[in-house]
Amino acid sequence: MSRTSSFIKPRTFPIPDDEQERLKSLASYGIVGGPPLPDLPSVVELAAYVCGVPNAVVNIISASQQLQMAAFGFEASACAREDSMCAISMVEPETVVVRDATQDPRFADNPFVTGEINEVRFYASSQLRDSDGHVLGTLCVFDQEPHELTEGQRQCLDKLAKMVLDVLELHRHSQMLEQALDTVHRTSRELQRSNSSLQHFAGQVSHDLKNPLTGVLGFVALLADIPAVAADPDGKRCVDRALSSATRMWRMIEDVLAHASLGGRPSFAEVNLESVARNVVEDVGTAIAATQAHVEVGPLPRVVGDATQLRVLIQNMVSNSLKFRDRGRECRISLTAEESPTGWTLNIADNGIGIPVQDRPKVLEMFTRLRTDIEGSGIGLATCQRIVEAHGASLVIDETPGGGTTMRITLPKPADQVALALVS
């Protein structure tokens, strides 16, 4: 007895040359497996109306399936890619228009034509092509009766296909925006957590510093009351300066605590810049004396800013001028100011070793040290830059005539002062 067997040839579909890149592009839109896009139903309904047929659909071609993203005239569904008519038309060089699919060798055996799935006769499709030329799918219209398209209808179908792609692009950019916002929110939460830890650390350190400083203030006060010290002009002057410096340190610690409690935000108020600068000169008096430097503080204005931060700014810059002095001549440092309608420019000039032009942007970065033979951490000017940014100010590094460095910090005036200056 002989046995016979039947073999059904599996259906195949054409694969574009750019298939891998095409699938990557498709994945970037996030539409496969996602919810329906609300703007597409109106487009497919308009396509059916313009072409004068009862059915229209947006088909997306994935690696193995045809996914109907929006349909008019029937219920959207999915099918295998090998059964898809659009899987064939997507590799054609131009828009496909077929009057009767039973007479077209590309589609005559397709299950959508033979009656296995449907009995399509008229079929037209326009490709959904991304900006790189990858075809993601098609906008197609069809009918169970033979049909023709005018040139105007064909052009409208192409324009509507571009509109479908615009909807997909809008969806992709919306997803990208959501992802970016999610990243921002997560980063913001992490920054809040980090800031909270830093604030706690600053508060704890400030608190711990106050304990020994309290003792210092107490002993200096007792020292000032000793008759022999009070009767000695030099001793009294030294004690008074120590008491003044320790008191300012106490106030700075209080300011740091307040600064920490504000979440690190500057506390703006009117600041007497000349008073701040003279206090800085007094505080670094030991270093000035040791280097035999001459520091001149000219008339400085009242500005709006954070007194604690501006004090740190000036002290860092004066200390830098002392540290990077030219050993071959007397160290001279001057603090002057210039007014403009919109702000005040504080000039801190020295006659030190200077900063080469090409290195000036680098010195404002954290941990940058141009001279490893000079003691330092590379943090000072980076801190100054942060203070400048917090004040909405600007910092320019120039060369002092005759050699040296001039730091120019321009602090903006309040809006009402600027308006008054412009009017006058």
UniProtKB/TrEMBL annotation:
Family annotation (SMART domains): HATPase_c, HisKA
Keywords, sorted A to Z: ATP-binding, Kinase, Nucleotide-binding, Phosphoprotein, Transferase, Two-component regulatory system
EC identifiers of the protein: 2.7.13.3
Coiled-coil ranges from the UniProt annotation: none
GO terms of molecular function: ATP binding
Cell compartments where the protein resides: Cell membrane
Keyword ATP-binding annotated: yes
The protein's name in its UniProt record: Sensor-like histidine kinase SenX3
Organism (species): Dactylosporangium vinaceum
